[in-house]
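A quick aside before the break. I want you to see a complete sequence-to-structure record at least once, exactly as it would be stored in a machine-readable document. Don't worry about memorizing anything.
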Amino acid sequence: MKHVLLGLTLVLSVLGIIFYSNMMHLACILSLLMALTSGAAFTYSLSRQYMHQFRMQEEIRKRITADVAHELRTPLASVALNLEAFAEGSLEPTREQLSKCIDDIDRLSRLVADMERLALTESRLRSLDREPTELLDLVRVVFHRATGSSAMVNVDRDRIIEVLENLRSNAEKYGADPIEVEVHNERRHAVITVRDHGEGIAPEDLPHVFERFYRADKSRNSAQAGSGIGLAIVQEIVEAHSGDVRVESDPGKGCTFIVRLPKR
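That is the input. The structure line, written in C-alpha cells, reads:
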C-alpha cells in the first residue's frame, strides 16, 4: 500500500509543477496517508519536501505571471488597436503603420525570450553546482583586462559568468568606455566592481534598477535595448550565493556595480 501511495505522490509532485493548486491538495492527502500507513519519519520528511517544492513553484509562477501581464499589455494593445483600425477601414495600412506593428511584435518576441531566460535562471538556482574558484581568473573569462587580487570563492561558475555577462551587456549598452573591472578582498567577502563612464543613473531610479523590467530611461524601448531583466537576474544569482549586489552612480559620470560574494 505505501509503495503505491509513494508512487502516486511522486507523479503528483511532477504534475504539481504545472497544475499547482489541485495537485497540491491531492499530494497533501496522499502524503498524510503515507505517513499514517508507514509511520516512517522519512516519509513525513519526504512529504514536507514535496510541499516546499510546490510552494516554491507557485511563488515563481505568481511572479512570472505578474511580470508577463505588466509587460505584454502595452505592445499587445497597440497591435490590437492597429489591426482593428485596419479591419474597419478607419486607418490605412501604410508602410509606416505596418512597421510599427512589426516593431511591437518584435518587442513581444523579445519579452517572451527574456521571460524564458528568467524562468530558466530561477530553475537552475534551486540546485547550484558550487566549486572552489579563483574569482579573478573567472572574472577575466568575461572581462579580459580585469585587475585586482586573488580571491577564493565557492560558487557555481556558470551562474557567476552569467552575472558577469549581464553586467558587461549593461555597461556596453548604457555606459561608455573604458569599462573598468577590479577584484579585491574584504575580510569575509570577495568583491567585484564594474565601473563605466556613461550618463549614470538618477538618484530616484537607483532603488529600482534591480527590479524586473525596470528601465531608468523609459526611452530604452528600442530594438537595441533589452526588456530590463538582466540586472534582476544578476541580483537573484548573487543572492542565491549568499552575496549581495548594489549600484553607485554619479549622474553624468557613470555607474559602479559592486558584487560581494562570501570567501571560501
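Two observations worth writing down. The first strand starts at residue 130 and ends at 134. The beta strands are 130-134, 147-148, 152-156, 180-185, 189-195, 244-250, 254-262. We'll return to this after the break.
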